[in-house]
Design goal:
Largest sheet: 6 strands, parallel
Number of strands: 12
CATH superfamily of the largest domain: NagB/RpiA/CoA transferase-like
Radius of gyration: 21 Å
Helix content: 25-40%
Strand order of the largest sheet: 1-12-7-4-2-3
Strand content: 15-25%
Number of helices: 7
Distance between the termini: 61 Å
Number of domains: 2
Order of helices and strands: HHHEHEEHEEEEEHHEEEE
CATH topology of the largest domain: Rossmann fold
CATH architecture of the largest domain: 3-Layer(aba) Sandwich
């Protein structure tokens, strides 16, 4: 019997006997020669994340916790955003008194579509790819909240920023989540006549506040 055939039949037998064990065994044999952990220091990691976001055309501001309400207020004023929907579990002390902020307690899609934007937190962020990862708990909001509004302001804790994709995917909440959304810059597509259009599959404008 050829080695290839023996390997195929062996996989079939393992799958029939215990699919979960077979999958784990096969997964463990996959070669992994890519970087699985970062080597950058804290400040270098944050600056890399910020530069990636700016490359994508995102706004990115750094702030302290104490300065956060004022930072958000000034940012929303500069964007002329006056009525925003906030993830239900986002910390109240992070938010400014103005503009108008409405908690998402199950608002319908028309309400989401007619607002000026959404404010959420995140689960983890990846510096190397400039990605934000959401698992859609109360702190981050349901998926519709980050897809329907035309503007998304995401608050990212400095301690949430990891360097590499494997580190982000191994985050306990990401690894166990049934639904994960990754965001790398404003939504855009060039599917129609190779013309790049923003805002087709989500917000056309993304701002990130990194909080130390």
């Amino acid at each position: 019997m050829s080695d290839a055939r023996a390997d195929i039949l062996g996989r079939i037998r393992r799958a029939i006997g215990s699919p979960a064990v077979a999958r784990e065994q096969d997964y463990a044999t996959i070669p992994r020669h890519y970087h699985q952990a970062g080597a950058l220091g804290h400040e270098q990691r944050l600056e890399l994340f910020k530069s990636r976001l700016e490359d994508y055309g995102c706004g990115c501001i750094r702030s302290t916790v104490a300065e956060l309400p004022g930072t958000i207020s000034r940012l929303l004023t500069s964007r002329v955003r006056q009525r925003l929907i906030v993830a239900a579990g986002l910390q109240a002390e992070w938010l400014p008194a103005t503009p108008e902020l409405i908690r998402d307690d199950g608002l319908n899609y028309v309400d989401l579509d007619q607002c000026d934007g959404a404010i959420t937190g995140c689960t983890v962020a990846i510096a190397r790819t400039g990605s934000i990862v959401l698992c859609h708990d109360a702190h981050e909001g349901r998926r519709a909240l980050t897809l329907i509004p035309d503007y998304h302001l995401c608050i990212v804790g400095a301690e949430q920023v990891v360097e590499t994709v494997p580190e982000g995917l191994r985050h306990p909440r990401v690894a166990s989540a049934s639904l994960v959304t990754t965001i790398s810059g404003p939504s855009a597509t060039a599917d129609i006549e190779m013309t790049r259009i923003k805002g087709v599959h989500g917000p056309r404008t993304l701002d990130v506040v990194i909080v130390d």
